[in-house]
Write a structure and sequence with these properties.
Layout (H helix, E strand, L loop, with lengths): L4 E6 L5 H13 L3 E6 L1 H10 L4 H6 L3 E3 L17 E7 L1 H8 L6 H11 L3 E6 L6 H12 L3 E2 L13 H14 L14
Parallel strand pairs: 1-2, 1-4, 2-3, 4-5, 5-6
Helix pairs in contact: 1-7, 4-6
Length: 187
Amino acid sequence: MERRRLVVGISGATGIAYGLKILELARKADVETHLVVTPAGQQTRAHETDLSAADLAAAADVAHRPADIGAAIASGSFRTAGMIVAPCSVRTLSAIAYGNGDNLLTRAADVTLKERRRLVLMVRETPLTLGHLRAMTAVTESGGVVMPPVPAFYLRPGSVDDLVEHTAGRALDLLGIDVPDLPRWAG
């Protein structure tokens, strides 16, 4: 049986912890990950973590350069379970919403939508303008899922990492990726 694949995009909004946790949980679920990080995402990495660009790339099975428009993830024939962009900046949201595939991240997202695969955008912006809401509507009408990383407190998290893990796990749930031992509400 072929191992499932997931494309993970990291753009230049705050919240790189979500992308890192998705990579970690996908590995735990034995899902092959393909990572693309925009230049602004690399700036966020430098501000929010102690990781080098090489460390971030090593968190995925395959890391792609954002300028490599010919990478496998830019083709509909490259089968994946879907794609998560975490965090997703409003600039990236807008490019995806209106079909502007000017880098590998936005091209891979466009391919995900055109192939009718699940695309989850963890949009990191607040407050929202009418333009942001219209871009979210356009993505949703195209089949994408807009999932702002809103923390859940019903599991009584003991740390920020607990909050990040729960939200990342919920994003993976949207692609049908089951993470072993992920805490869940039991009623």
